[in-house]
Each structure stands twice: as C-alpha cells, then as structure tokens.
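FORM 7B - TANDEM STRUCTURE REPORT

SECTION 1: FIRST PROTEIN
SEQUENCE AND TOKENS:
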Amino acid sequence: MGHEKEPLYRRVNTRTRGVAHGGGDYRWSRHARREDRASRGAMGSHQRQGLDYTPLFRFLLSRVGGDWTQVHREAVSRLDRAEPIFWLVARSEAERQPYVRIGGTSYFNGLFVDDDNRLCLVDPDLRIEDLTPSCACCTHTLNGVPFVRRYEGG
C-alpha cells in the first residue's frame, strides 16, 4: 500500500469569534422595496472560507530550482483546486512581483517559471530586513518568519 501524501492546505476554524467572512450585503437589502426580488439573483456565496494554503506556499518555496512540470503535478494532486498555486507563481512576466501579500500580514516570495522550466524566485536577493511592517499592532511575516524591522509610521 502506498502512503498518500497530506494535502497542501488545511482547514481553519471559521466559527471562532472574530473570524471575518465578508459579505452581509443581502442582510441589509432583503427588506428593501426598491427592486424586485427576482432580479437580485441567488444568495449563494462565491467565496471559499476556512482554507489555509500556507503548506502549499512552503511546498512551492522548498521546490525552487526544481522542474516545474513535476512540482506543478504534485501540487495539483494534493490540492482541492489549482488556483492558489498561481497566487505565488506568476503566469506572465507582467505578473512577476518580488513578494506577494497573502491575507493581511503574511508575505511570501514571488515565484515564476524560467525558460528552462525551472521554478525560480522573482527576486533572489530579497531579504526579510528589506521589508517594513505597515502597522505596529500586527506581526508581519515573510515566508512565516517575523519581520526584523519595526513599524516606522507616525
């Protein structure tokens, strides 16, 4: 029997007090008489809540320099959908960024696939010392490591 690898995402508790889900627009408009109910469409959510893709991002960063076809194949086999891969991996030169912000205070190195089909860092010289937090109240991280510099705002 083969050992099945763990998924590259995890479920997070979304019922905890203080977890923001967005939405709520329908709640404020449901009794409004300005428009016909039939014209509003479905109430269903288009968001996927409660999933954390940090394990995917760490997996991708650990495979820098590897063959993209193999890395992509393994990542897709361990995910619920392929879209989060391209939150870090740029599909075109125009999408390349030295770092990518995921959520409020988590940053990860930006990635791209080079001409030799290898997964590469957009800015291999980017260091955690180069980044400054945007506020004093939160812990900002790059690839899971807290920023070294302190908030410099006023």
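SECTION 2: SECOND PROTEIN
SEQUENCE AND TOKENS:
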Amino acid sequence: MENVLIYKANALVEASYRLSLYEQRILLVCISQVRRDQPLTDQKLYTVSAKQLSDLSGVGLKTAYRHLKEASERLFERRVTLHEAPNGQSVSKPRLTRWVQTVEYQKSEGAVALRFGTDMVPYLSQLTEQFTRYALADVAKMTSGHAMRLYEQLVQWRDTGKRVVEIDWLRETLQLEERYSNIRDLKRRVIEPAVAQINEHSPLWVKWDQRKTGRRVSHLVFTFGEKAQKASQKPRKQKGIAKTVGKAENASGSIYGIPMEVINAQARPGESSDDAAHRILEERRNIARA
C-alpha cells in the first residue's frame, strides 16, 4: 500500500486546516484509493481498516483500531478553508467546508468507510494542472502532523529546490491560532521537529533559515532536494522571493529537473509527461538505493 500515490490540488495543499496525525493518515489512505481514470463522485465510499493503519504506521492492531475509531469521529467535524479553486483559479471569497460527509463503522471488519464532502471532490480528482503528487510511503512513518503538512508544501515545489513562506501564512495554513505565538516556540515545537522528520523519513533532505523584515522574523526559507542527488546536485536559485501562496512551477523544458527530451524518449505508450517524469524519478531513486 505504501507504493501508491497521493494526488492533491495545490489549492488543497495550501488550504487552511488542522488535522491530527491519525486523521491525516486516514484521509491519505482514502485519497490513495481515488482512481484517476474514473470520475469521482461524492457518493463513493472509501474504506480504511485498522490493519492498513497498523501496516502503515507500525503500531499494534488494537492501537490502530482505537485510533481509527476516535480519529474518524473527529474527522467528521473537521473543517477546511479553501482559498482557491481546484486548478488554481482565484475565487471571490474563501470557502469553508468539511472533509467528509459520511462515516460508516464496519466493526466486524475492523474498518471505517468515509465519503468525501461534495466540495472536496474537485480537489482530489480530474486534476489536469496545479496539483501535487507524492508517494504515501514518503510520509508513512512520520509521527508529526506538522511534518506531513510541511512535506506537502515543499514537495509541491520539488523542481525548484527552494521555498520561502511568510510565517503568518504558515501559521494560518496550519491553524495554529494562538499557539506558539513566540517565534522561538514556533521553531522549537513546529519547524525543527517537522524538518527533522522529513529528513529522517522522506526522500527529501531539507535545510531552513529565517529572514527578517526590519527587526521581526517574517519569513522561513527552505532549501531541499532529493537525498540521492544531495551530493551532486544543488537546488537551483530562484529570482527573488517566491510568493507565499504560489503555484508549483516546472522549470522551462523540464519536470522534476528531468529534461523533456529524456522524458519524451522514455515515456511509455499512453503515459503523460508528468507521470513519465515521476516514474523516471522513482527509478533513479531505486537505483541509487540499491
């Protein structure tokens, strides 16, 4: 199951919401089941079992089932604020909605079935542009919900190797509210643990620094890259500061840093350029790890 891919609209990656670790795991298992070759409707039920969560996280089956039940109940109440339309179009005003509209318990099977909210469907299917993709295995072993969110926000800019974010924007997307209002607490309780987990469990290496506006720390600067390429390839420099709520932009003539001529030469019949680039990247990773 860890080899499956997660697809999310960039607008969903940068939406404002707060989810616990297990709530995120449940959602990601559901999202990984969305078929990209079939239309998604809000009537489709997706099942998550305690066995899946146990295998994914490495916890015992009983513990996984307890977390599954408790987290799915909370998930029914969780809200998300969407600031953009699914493929990056601007909207007149933010939309407040819910992740799921139905939770069905399947006690005999040790599982829970979820139905996505109507407003969420376009952000998970029929994504033709402005979307983020990564393997479920990239975040499977993380034990910090903040690490999972930060990883998504970085991998969205994977081909640039750098992202600059406003601290106020980051606080809003993570729904920190009044918690960690002191920058030292934010770094110690959120940023440092999240970066440590990304470095330990994901395919990326990450470094970070801070940037001041006047005397106030206003931005965080993240530089990152593929671990297999860390020694031989440095992140490309961006001109100026990236927009806080920017889009993931491929460098001209490449995807994930892979030249288009290589992608076109190695693409399989019926495979899109983006899918081919991701497959080539995964193949290179596997070779480097061998």
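SECTION 3: OBSERVATIONS ON SECOND PROTEIN
The radius of gyration is 19 Å.
Residues 254-289 form one domain.

SECTION 4: SIGNATURE
Preparer initials: ____
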